[in-house]
Amino acid sequence: MMNPRTVQKIAFFSLFLSTLLIVVPVGMIVVIIVQKGLPAITWQFLTDVPRQGMRAGGIFPAIVGTLYLVLGAVAFALPIGLLAAIYLSEYARDNVMNRIVKLAIVNLAGVPSVVYGLFGLAMFVVWCRFGASILSGALTLGIMILPIIITASREALEAVPQTFREVSLSLGASKWQTIRHIVLPNAIPGIITGTILGIGRAAGETAPILFTVAAFYLPRLPKSIFDQAMALPYHLYVISTQVPNVDEKVRYGTAFVLLAMVLTVNLVAIVIRYKFRKQKKW
Amino acid sequence: MRKFGIENLNIWFGKVQALKGVSLAIEANEILSIIGPSNSGKTTFLRMLHRLNELEQNFRMSGSVLMDALDVRSVDLELLRKKIGIIFALPLPLPLSIFDNVSFGPRMHGIRARKRLTDIAEQSLKQAYIWDEVKDRLHESAFKLSGGQQQRLCIARTLATGPEVILFDEPCSGLDPVSTARVEETMLELKKDYTIVLVTNNVKQAARVGDRTAFFLSGELVELDTTDKIFTAPSNKRTDDYIRGKFG
Amino acid sequence: MRKFKEFIIEKLILICGSASIFFVALIFVFLLKEGLSLFKTVRLGAFLFGKSWYPISEPAELGILPLILGSLLVTAGAAVISVPIGVGCAVYIAEIAPGKVKEVLKGGIELLAAIPSVVLGFIGMVTLVPWVKNIFHLPTGLTALSGSIMLAFMAMPTIVSIAEDALYSVPRSYKEGAFALGATHWQTIWRVLLPAASSGILAAVMLGIGRVIGETMAVMMITGNSAVIPHTILAPVRTLTATVAAEMGEAVVGSEHYFALFAVGIVLFVISFAINVTADLFLHRERR
Asked: Taking Cα atoms as reference points, which of A41, A44, A51, A56 lies closest to residue A220?
């Protein structure tokens, strides 16, 4: 039987090691991509169309495509997600229906991304006849980020103290007035944070857009929401696996832009959360 | 004139019965104090007049609560709450500016005109004796005020909706003696125009401001009489024990 | 007028409240609509347990057993790596790390969760795959093992954050009680905290595994995509998700191949549904 102190030392050291095993590679990934990707970033790389079968030129159409997709997804998911969150936080009573809704959200969050792609293909591309288009892709991504927006908004709404609602109601405000003038304004930071996290997720996902929107090689900008478009994550996939002899620099550069976009978005969310938590009024 | 008539009121939260067969009347322009130990049902009674208990999920009731001879449950809820204001135990400003706190009620009731709102705010703040302290900082956050000021702001906010009745739910439990005295003064002043129901843990406060006093115990109304009678010659022994501090 | 407006808004809120149920049902219905058509020509048994997947040969062979085994192998490998490390990291963050370090570590984990899977796949291709190839002297580094390592990594954020939550929500009094009896910090963690948080940790592990099974891009980029029944973890494999992602682009809408890929989608949906419902039950039990 070993001395408990020694056992503790060994155990804590292994726990520390596990943590290092996760954190160090994360750091390495970021460092490698920044180190090798940053030199590829030039004004031309960011603003030019891909040339020579994507082996040269820039990634502008992919950046624009991703922006369109993300905006479309948020425009679709935010209103529905916010109202759903309001339902859960302000109207739902603790009953079976409520429980099923919560379970559905958990499941929606857990559906594999490629299954979203299949669904988008069957429903929007084929059944709704939108074809492979920005519209189909944005709707698919929108449904995918719905659970993120609902969960974050609900938490933000529920964090508003119950007493504010009681006071507002006691002054003769209606339920909706109370939500509109008291609950929502105080939940805005949380809702924004959730939405931004959803944006980050939508910007980085590849599988849902594979069959719903992504164009393999389309060196021009999309003209309408019924156009196909390139998108950054898919573009990275294509030039890493489907196109031979692509310069390393182009690949790393693309990975860098995608990573930078997603991490910036997440960083903004974290900063907003942090700032508002500090200046919380109650 | 009778403002409220309560007949055989029973209230349950789940399996727990919070009020048991309470019947009493509240007259217009009186201050009715309600005393009793905690869990005696006095706050539940107060919140019933205002229909705030309905926010709880497992609330049930029987009996009737009439205001101006109308059942409160048949009256439009927002109208009822406009007519009846409530001041909570802790000062609860909304996370808005001082001005927006006071004008919140009127705005929700559809008053938009800036001039009108300013007038109402000024008048209400004056009525609650806090105008002089806040008139130069109306657009600061209400959270910057002291506890006593916040509570008077809450009174002003309630007055701004133009109520007929004001319910006070242990309004001084978080306040220092000086602020308490100011709030009590305000109550006595308001009596001229409003019907006031005051729930309090502080027996002396009931003695100081109440015209009549009701004693609640374990969800029952034990005794209701003029404040003088309750505090000098109560007819029930349990009332006597309570006001002499033998329990509670 | 105001009342009418509010009536409309409240109805809208009610409708959106059930939107998530509607969408889950919609996804399932569309998968079924396309996927079930396959079973007019292929028997369910032959589909699930058929040993070969040759979707474009004549006649096509549509047995997904190699794909299922591929997914299982990669997932099992990922679980073996990620569960001990992930739970260990959660314990470290919840119990041992001092305040500032804790925040930094949590930030790092959040960062990992945010990295798009295609970026991780890319990094895996250029770093991990050559390593595996050289260390084990293989003809290719695109193997189930590479996939497992990368996926273990992707499961970490889920496992760490949910397990940490579970540990955090163990009542303080348990810990104080153990300390009062003279237990060391580690004994307290091992004998009191971990058992008390066990159902939450189990849920964390399950959700992590759910994430792994559903992961697509990274897996497709680094596991070699060969649809044969794997005999070792050092062989290339093809998972259910990668099959759908890689082949749907070429499948003709309405063909047998197309229907078969949707049938694979149904399998994936059912697996993730089962995992999420069970994990939710565990989490729910925890809260009571």
From this structure: A51
> Distance (Å) from the C-alpha of residue A22 to the closest C-alpha of chain C?
7
Instruction: Judge: A172–B143 Cβ closer than 8 Å, yes or no.
Output: no
Residues C189 and C287: their CA atoms lie apart, in Å, by 20
Give residue A91's domain range: 36-46+58-236+247-278
- Determine which of A139-143, A153-157, A201-205, A278-282 has the lowest per-residue pLDDT on average: A278-282
Rg of chain C over CA atoms, in angstroms?
Answer: 23
Report DSSP state, residue A121. I
User: Measured between alpha carbons, how far is A136 from B233 in angstroms, rounded to an integer?
Assistant: 81
**Token reading at A70:** 């993300």
Alpha helices, DSSP H, located in chain C: 2-17, 19-35, 44-49, 65-91, 99-114, 117-123, 129-135, 144-168, 172-180, 185-188, 194-196, 198-214, 217-222, 240-247, 256-287
Residue A59, Cβ density class (10 Å: 0-12 exposed, 13-18 middle, ≥19 buried): buried
Cα-based distances in Å from A233 to A238, C66, C105: 9, 28, 27
pLDDT at A1 (0 to 100): 64
- Is there a domain that residue A206 lies in? yes
Contact list, A181 vs chain B (CB under 8 Å): 104, 108
- What's the structural domain count of chain A? 1
Q: Is residue A205 part of a domain?
A: yes
Which pLDDT value is given to residue C288?
A: 44
In this prediction the pTM is 0.88
Q: How far apart are CA C111 and CA C105, in angstroms?
A: 10
Cβ contact C224:A45 at 8 Å: no
Average pLDDT over residues A70-90: 95
Could you report the per-residue pLDDT of B223-241, keeping only the tens digit for each?
999 999 998 888 889 998 9
Q: CA-to-CA distance for C135 and C56, rounded, in angstroms?
A: 36
Give me the residue from A12, A101, A116 closest to C186, CB to CB. A12
Burial of B166 (0-12, 13-18, 19+ CB in 10 A): buried
Q: Which of A253, A204, A229 is nearest to A43 (CA)?
A: A253
Q: What ipTM was predicted for this assembly?
A: 0.90
In a domain, residue A115? The reply is yes
Q: What is the CATH number of the domain that holds A106?
A: 1.10.3720.10
Choose from B44-58, B98-112, C94-108 the range with maximum mean pLDDT: B98-112
Q: What is the mean pLDDT of residues A70-96?
A: 92
Contacts of A92 in chain B (CB under 8 A): none
CB contact under 8 A, A115 and C88: no
The rounded distance, in Å, linking the Cα atoms of C108 and C100 is 13
- Residue C126 CA to its chain's centroid (Å): 23
Please state, rounded to an integer, the average pLDDT across all residues of chain B: 90
Beta-carbon contacts of C56 under 8 Å, excluding residues fewer than 6 positions away, are: C257
Check CB contact under 8 Å for B52 and A169. Answer: yes
| C-alpha triplet C281, C285, C288: angle, nearest 5° | 145
- At residue B10, the 3 state secondary structure works out as strand
Phi first, then psi: what are they for B26, rounded to 5°?
A: -120, 130
The alpha carbon of A19 is separated from its chain's Cα centroid by a whole number of angstroms, namely: 25
Q: Do B143 and A282 touch (CB under 8 A)?
A: yes
Q: Is residue A9 part of a domain?
A: no
